[in-house]
Amino acid sequence: MFPKLALISFAFTSVVVGQLVGTYETETHPRVTWQRCTRGGSCQTVQGSIVLDANWRWVHGRTGYTNCYTGNSWDTSLCPDNRACAENCALEGANYASTYGITTSGNSVTLKFIQPNSNGKNVGSRVYLMASDTRYQMFNLLNQEFTFDVDVSKLPCGLNGATYFAGMDADGGMARFSTNRAGARYGTGYCDAQCARDIKFINGEGNAEGWTPSETDVNAGTGKHGSCCHEMDIWEANSISTAYTPHSCDQHNSFRCSDSACGGRDNRYGSQCDPDGCDFNSFRLGDKTFYGPGMTVDTNTKITVVTQFLTDTGTASGNLKEIRRIYVQNGRVIQNSKVNVPGMDAYDSITEPFCAATKVAFEDRDSHGEHGGLASISQGMKNGMVFVMSIWDDHTANMLWLDSNYPVDADPNKPGIARGTCPTTSGVPSEVEASATDATVTYSNIKFGDIDSTY
């Protein structure tokens, strides 16, 4: 996956993040069910809920309602430094439906891309699956499979309805960082392999020092620090293209980075994490008729997405050796597409030989191998990972890395450049936010369990 510096691209001007807890809006987590399955097709329903990521929330002075952050700038009287920010700022509860366009019903979660509200509008969102009101649901993916249904029919070029696993703390960081008073209940502790620097509070402190407002997003910016961890993208998609991608890190718990050590646009490979990952995008890998409207996997209708995490020992204590994808649609099981790239074997899953071959065929830097590859992310999976659901647009690369030719100045006939049929002029956030006001994504029927038990 390409940089997510602009993952948080909302237009609700008072939506930010803090570590203390306010009292203006009661935090009530929308309920959602999911299932835990065992071999033989036995599945037990689990009562869960979701929580909105803290970076979207309103945060204000602890003794009043003055915004700690407005537009894309901090209030320096409340946040003269990072520590003071945590001491002075209170994080509020969320009105999920009316402010953010987030709703649940039974086993489904629907995220609207644009939600008009009393403050203007909210753009995009990110939520986490909860085990309780104060802890995220943790998943050990090794020797297991994860399945969900998704409807991407209303996601045009430039949008990404993404589900993934992040190596976050189960409590949102409260135990490790004493200044974090909000924790998982308020969606704190986000991290990813891009070492996201647009996160406003990291490790229980603000990210105000050295904050640079974005030139393209009036509500976002980049701080001195970033938040890093293993990331397993099981589904990045719109109606045109999809990819699944592991991203490993050298450290196996979430950690804070600083400046150029976070990588990013000016020093992409400077962090302790793999920003590129090892992606399986059927279109990029030579099958241009597999995924899309009216194709083998038809994005006009609901899709069941199965991801299997196979280990070298066939047990949860082994190391990850293969990530296999299966689709189910209209009662038909569809095996993953096969690679059709000169010089490559006909791989149909992510393995170390596949990853090495794609880096050579596409002439890409092997940051996957440099950071330990599948063996490294195995260690993160053993710690447990948090399930993330999101919808977003891209202020860095217009989502072209997912659904168009990227880089745009490269020959699209060169292996690895063409990733989808969207025009290279598509995905501009200002245009997408104006034209895709009805865009939504629905995730439902989440199942987790033994291999071949969830579909």
From TrEMBL:
Gene3D superfamilies: Glycoside hydrolase, family 7, domain. It comes from Cyclocybe aegerita (Black poplar mushroom). Its EC number is 3.2.1.-. Pfam families: Glyco_hydro_7 (PF00840). This is Glucanase. It is an enzyme of class 3 (hydrolase). Residues 1-18 form the signal peptide. GO terms for molecular function: cellulose 1,4-beta-cellobiosidase activity. Keywords: Carbohydrate metabolism, Cellulose degradation, Glycosidase, Hydrolase, Polysaccharide degradation, Signal. PANTHER family: 1,4-BETA-D-GLUCAN CELLOBIOHYDROLASE B, GLYCOSIDE HYDROLASE FAMILY 7 PROTEIN. Belongs to the glycosyl hydrolase 7 (cellulase C) family. One of its GO terms (biological process) is cellulose catabolic process. It catalyses: Hydrolysis of (1->4)-beta-D-glucosidic linkages in cellulose and cellotetraose, releasing cellobiose from the non-reducing ends of the chains.
